[in-house]
Specification:
Layout lengths: L12 H11 L3 E3 L6 E3 L1 H19 L4 E2 L5 E3 H4 L3 H7 L4 E6 L2 E9 L4 H11 L8 E10 L13 E11 L2 H22 L5 E4 L11 E8 L5 E11 L1 H6 L2 E3 L5 E3 L1 E8 L1 H10 L16 E5 L6 H14 L5 E4 L5 H11 L3 E5 L1 H6 L1 E6 L5 E5 L3 H27 E3 L3 H9 L3 E6 L3 H11 L2 E8 L14 E6 L3
Parallel strand pairs: 3-7, 15-16, 15-17, 20-21
Antiparallel strand pairs: 1-2, 4-6, 5-6, 7-8, 8-14, 9-10, 10-11, 11-14, 12-13, 17-18, 18-19, 21-23, 22-23
């Protein structure tokens, strides 16, 4: 048996990314461009993300719901700013059976409108607020240039939509959610990120403010990993979502939305994987510990010991026992490409010595472990593994940040695939012009600028901003 060849990062980063996905059997291409078939490995990673985020959401009083896929086009067009942001990306349903619809349906690109219609029905009094509802679903957007996980016509995500009595409470929720995403991506996915507000030109359509977390991929490009939006009363005024306040006045609710999508799987791959395949954080790995039996067909004690190991570990970790007759080279390569964090190799000599060889995926380190000490040792190695892959990505991020104060240094840094930190005082048109000239865009605002000049416009700067080329 042979595994699919992985192109090296040095050869071609884009081809490397695709070949890792194919070799690890994460997705397969469907017959409609821009859609994916999630294979078991890919769906398991996503489901592990779902379960962990759901656990964290529950701590914030967030409840799951499920809303319809279709939205009436007439309802969608009521929010002008929202439509301006999404009109080029819409899929429309115009026919039902052999009958033409009186008005088309929008196949949801996001669900602000559906949630607004729902909240209008159920919100009456200040006693009803706040409401924090989340749905896990697929959404659809037209994409000319598609890439697995990063840009798809159909993708999966969670979208949180909340309503509040006051702007202060809504803004606080917006900030809480971006911090929740940051903690999740940092500690669960082992990816360091930059966190801040989006510039005006990068905000979500219809939002008063957008907060983001941005990660650096191994090719020097940034990837937006999660966003949280303060929507204010833009939608509630359009859809007439009111509540009766404590002093018996009717007021419009303040809203937020937030989301993380299957794009985060792309971030995991491009943050941690190497030329042998995936390197997965322990929490998302479909198999966390693989036990590879060698010569089990010749020595029954090897299989028996492997199953004893399994019994010790399976209540704490997701464990696979490979008792097949495939050679060691194939077995270990299969676990490497799949990104299994910990591999235990067990042969007849190991059984005699009451030991097993432990191999870590992140650095290939091998240690001999006594069988009666295996659980404690794996616990220790897992902790070290998580720290190791985070620190490697953190070093890459920190060493890539360059501060500049003029366009020449900006161009040089972007050409060298750096993240630029610079004072900014430009408009939305200036953002577009900068991207046309350099390929870079503002990723997030770090802080307010004090007595500084914009490197691009030479006007008084408002903010200190991170810039990079981005997916």
């Amino acid at each position: 048996m042979k595994l699919e060849k992985i192109v090296t990062r040095a050869e071609n980063f884009a081809d490397w990314y695709t070949s890792v996905i194919q070799a690890a059997k994460l997705i397969d291409y469907a017959s409609i461009k821009g859609t994916m078939i999630f294979q078991p490995n890919g769906w398991a990673i996503w489901q592990n993300i779902v379960h962990e985020l759901d656990r964290r959401f529950a701590n914030h009083g967030i409840l799951n719901v499920q809303l319809p896929l279709f939205i009436k086009y007439s309802e969608f067009t009521r929010e002008k700013e929202h439509v301006a942001g999404f009109a080029p990306e819409l899929f429309l349903v115009t026919q039902q059976g052999d009958k033409k619809l009186e008005e088309p349906y929008v196949v949801r690109p996001t669900s602000e409108i559906a949630f607004c219609n729902y909240y209008k029905k159920i919100v009456n009094s200040y006693n009803d607020l706040p409401l924090k509802y989340n749905q896990w679903c697929n959404v659809f957007r037209v994409e000319k240039n598609t890439r697995p996980f990063l840009r798809n016509c159909e993708f999966f995500w969670q979208e949180l939509h909340t309503v509040h009595a006051t702007s202060e409470e809504a803004i606080e929720t917006t900030k809480q959610m971006i911090q929740l995403y940051k903690d999740f991506v940092n500690y669960y996915l082992c990816i360091p990120v930059l966190m801040g507000e989006k510039t005006e030109g990068e905000r979500f359509a219809g939002a008063e403010n957008t907060f983001t977390i941005e990660a650096l991929m191994q090719d020097g490009q940034a990837l937006q990993c999660g966003t949280s939006h303060y929507l204010g009363q833009n939608f509630s005024k359009t859809f007439d979502i009111k509540f009766q306040s404590k002093d018996n006045k009717y007021e419009y609710v303040c809203q937020t939305s937030a989301g993380i999508s299957t794009r985060i799987i792309g971030a995991i791959i491009m943050s941690h994987a190497d030329d042998k395949g995936l390197v997965l954080p322990i929490g998302v790995a479909p198999i966390q510990v693989a036990i590879l039996s060698l010569f089990a067909d010749k020595d029954p004690k090897v299989s028996e010991t492997a199953m004893e190991l399994y019994k010790q570990l399976h209540n704490k970790y997701r464990v696979l026992v490979d008792n097949t007759n495939n050679g060691f080279g194939y077995k270990i390569a299969n676990q490497e490409v799949s990104g299994t964090p910990i591999v235990l190799v067990l042969g007849p000599k190991d059984v005699q010595n009451n030991t097993v060889t432990l191999i870590r995926r992140d650095n290939g380190a091998k240690i001999d472990v006594e069988l009666n000490n295996i659980v404690k040792t794996i616990d220790e190695q897992v902790r070290e593994y998580q720290i190791s892959i985070y620190k490697k990505a953190e070093l890459r991020l920190n060493s890539s940040i360059v501060e500049v104060n003029n366009i020449d240094d900006f161009n040089e840094a972007i050409k060298n695939r750096k993240i630029v930190k610079a004072a900014w005082g430009g408009s939305q048109d200036d953002e577009k012009l900068l991207k046309e000239k350099t390929g870079a865009s503002p990723r997030c605002i770090v802080e307010k600028a004090i007595n500084q000049v914009c490197f691009f416009t030479k006007k008084t700067a408002r903010d200190i901003v991170y810039f990079a080329r981005a997916y």
